[in-house]
Request: fold
Amino acid sequence: MAQDQCIKLAILAVGGQGGGVLTNWIVDLAEQNGWVAQYTAVAGVAQRTGATIYYVEMAPQQEKRPIFSLAPSVGDVDILIAAELMEVGRAIQRGFVSPNRTCLIGSSHRLHAVSEKINPGDGRAKDQVIFDAAHKSAQKVLLHNYDRLAIQNGSYISASLFGALAASKALPFMPAQFEAILEQSGRAAARSIAAFNAALKAEPLAAPELSKQAAPAAKAKGPQKLMAKWDALQQRIAQLPNESQELARAGLKKCVEFQDVTYGDAYLTTVEQFAQRIPDDRPDILTELAKHLANAMAYDDLIRVSDLKTRRQRLSRIESEVQLQSADGLKLTEYFHPRAEEICGLMPPRLGRWFEDSPSRFAWLDRRVNKGRRIRSNGFWGFSTLYLLGGLKWWRKHTLRDQIERRHRKAWLEEIEENLADNPDLALELIKCRRLIKGYSDTHHRSLSKFARIFENLHLVSELPDAADWVRRWRDAALMDENGDALDGAIKTVEVTLRQKSSADVE
Amino acid sequence: MAERSFAKEVEKLRLGDGDTFRGEGILAITKALLENGVGYVGGYQGAPISHLMDVFADAEELLGELGVRFEASASEATAAAMLAASVHYPIRGAVTFKSTVGTNVASDALANLASGGVTGGALIIVGEDYGEGSSIMQERSHPFAQKSQIWLLDPRPNLPSIVDAVGHGFALSEASNTPVMLEVRIRACHVHGHFDTKDNVPPPFTVRDALENPKRKTDRIVLPPASFLHEKEKVEQRLPAAIDYIQQHKLNEHFGPDQGDIGIIMQGGMYNNVMRALQRMGLADLYGDSKVPLYVMNVTYPLVPDEVVDFCADKKAVLMVEEGQPACLEEAVAALLFKHKINTDLAGKGVLPLAGELTGQVMLDGLRSFITSHAPHLATDQDRAPNEPQLLPQPELDDTVPARPPGFCTGCPERPIFAATKLVEEELGAHHISSDIGCHLFSIMPPFEIGGTTMGYGLGPASSSALNAKGARRSISFVGDGGFWHNGLTSSIGNASFNEHDGVTVIVDNYYSAATGGQDILSSRAENKSRNTNNPIGKAVKGMGVKWVREIDNTYDVGKMRETLKEALTTDETGPKVIVASSECMLNRQRRERPLKAKAIAEGQTISQPKFGVDEDICTGDHACMRLSGCPSLTVKKLDDPLRDDPVAHIDQSCVGCGNCGEVADAAVLCPSFYKAERIHNPGRAHKIWRMLSTNFMSWLQARRDRKSLRFEA
Reply:
């Protein structure tokens, strides 16, 4: 049947990815090698960052002109190129990938959709699902981070995908014929060809690349006296259960960086105390505690922020981020917006509370401090200011904020301890609730209130056999939206269930 | 200045006899107009016909040589009214717009034009934006053609057929004194193909000739009693003349065998899709050789009764392939068969879905169902029991793949306007918000989710007009600069001013008609050598009698934006409150500035290149900033730090340094993680010395602190 001679190729891309360029190359490739080709694209859909489809059909040149379709059909696509991982998934969903015929080429990098970004927790889609679906749905699969290959060669993803298409051997053309097309592409030709060749040689990925998630072995440097203390702390970590050591080490480092070695000692002491009480078969609880306790102790205050902003490594990181050359100049501007709350937090507890307790005094203070401040952090004045603030660590333990944090932490740890023996699963979930606390100013307050709501309502479930499950569900709900509406719903569900149950018991 | 330069395409317009044009469908139409001696062209931009307008805008010189008048019309109504030049004068004219939105706007002029009829060929090229990917309501242009009696061409979607339709369109219009609508679907507008070109033909009678020799005939003016006669003339003279022309020139086509048990009638635009379905069923080959008789209506209005009757008479059943609803053609064919007492089964809607685009699978399913029930001998075993690999349901996939609706570009100046609106609503509570057409309509999507209705271009404030009550919470309306000049000035601003409406209107001014490709409009800030630009919106608004007007010339100042909006919502002043929020469309700005900057850097000038960043140690991963932004360059990143569960904010290399994230972090008091890093190319001597001194100073302090505390190296 003559229709077998028609090759159907669809490209799914995100607006702005240059899908049109790739499409043009493919059409040129076909037409310059004795085939006829047609392509369509609905440009309006790419506007501006939406998902979009380009569609090409080609057939060997003959007397009569073929009649090509203007859009891909379900189950009728030979080659599917997706310029982003979720677009691979979308192609499969839409039926453009068939196990009996489709060669699927996809870039495994991610351009996160808005819905993945606005979640207060981790809203990112799971890459593994797409990899699994791709291998189930296509005849041949080439997945790789083609975006990275392009960037490494100073080019764009269209060039590396063109290379992947050549590598797939799904078109009846040789790599040299592909390259000949790129040679016509003008000034950027050399870089396009480099990206093309990188993709041509790349070995497809079988599974998503995972981030390392391992604590780099922290090498400490400093005065001898402090180093001796640090080494002693390291030795104490070696006494902890193996499974928890890595997290304890990372936690210790965070606390020492936040304050000092003594603070690190306090952290480790708490971890050790828990290590004694946690059942031996539950190292996971200690690991989670080591993680979340460190986050709780290294809270975000003005001192920490200023300290981090004046670090040497930070400056060099930014310099490489903007590709600074030695002859260039650099201006750094920080966006600060302190409010009276933050200033009160820096005061001694009694003074801070004296302000906070009176709305008029507080408003007076707020009027003086609450405004946006642009700080030129690599200038003399700006850097000095941040440096001085970052040097207030010695003062930190005398502040209202530290008192608040200490009390909050104490209550949290007590609640965990209380449940540790009878319901270790619940204790573990309570540890993990610390994840909810994040952000600054209003955002911080909202996250604190979500955390508080879980602990305030703990009595509802603490006696139930599946208490741990409930707390986990509440926490997941709390991470779904900003204000905790889903959390309120989840708590309501428990209340209603319990009420129905108790009224049924009465009857 | 449009988003894209069409210098290359303009060259294609100069091709002559024996050359081959290679390019997009809509550009082929542009070329065909010149080959057919068009005298004037007008239109209003919008997908999918924007490129026609943009190419003509860039082809000023060629049009001048040929004596063709081109106008970028203020609206579709203006464009349609332009065809009045063909009423008395033998000039061919063409206008173009997106349908059905544009046809709605134009229908007043179209109805008047169709009533009096035309002398010169009048062609209305409508970009039929229907189906998947459409940005407008799902309606058809067909009923417009029927109600005003404008002939409707729907050619097969390949370049030679479309180009032919342009020539026949003019001739048909002249032969029947009736305007002709040429319908091109969105994919046909963007299909890339070839056709053999002819020399351009200068208009035999130009607009200059008309101006020098004015003519008028009262019987062509729509006023009783002439208008009563027009209606009669339409059916007694113009319709028969049109049918004659269509038959004589064989505008409708037959394919496949002369005879058969069954047949398929289709709109021309459906041809390729029908062929593909037949191919997949083994009833046709790739080159159009069909085993089933096909009748292709390249003219879908008027029908040619004889052709339809002849095609159907010897068949047991015919299928009418018609996209969209109402089923105008199917009903017309059914009426013809009934009146001619022809006992042929007519299938159509039912076999095919009542509504929606006839995509590949839909068409295949429909044809299969028609053929297995009406011509089982043609059906293969596969048609009767399709043994295709089943698409397995993949629930995990459905849960995973996120929707990706279009949104604001990186650095878009409209983003801070909606961030400010969200902040105001957090403070003052929810308001009734009317949206309008344009990029700013993306505000209805996450993360902003602002706006309740969109009633038409430039009608944002008008759609709030009922919602006005003394002392109540005020309505907020958005309208773009494009919509403002299209229709908004009178329908929205004038109306609010006249009726003393207390609501707040925000005019989103990005210097262009941006959503349609960045065309210049009256208030554009660029110098345009052939158009009158730089007419401030604020002045026009004040001219309409609005007293409370605030002009913000930097939308990125979120704090000011928020304060101004708050003031507008709370001031005691009565009457409409109008905020003109202006900053240049970032897409166009980048296109304009990038080459200039690169050149300046190469020349050794001092140029600052800003980029924003996030300190990942300071970011807590709450993503509050993203709930107020949605910028593609502000995204999430998973750190290698095992202490962190949630990904943190990260600004990627596509950042253009607009400043929105820093401003939002400040205005909403979010967090101190954002910083702006300006790389200064070719810094001056003073800056170099300053940088050296400050770097030494910082290093000295850093070393001082390092000596006293533990430091870690990765």
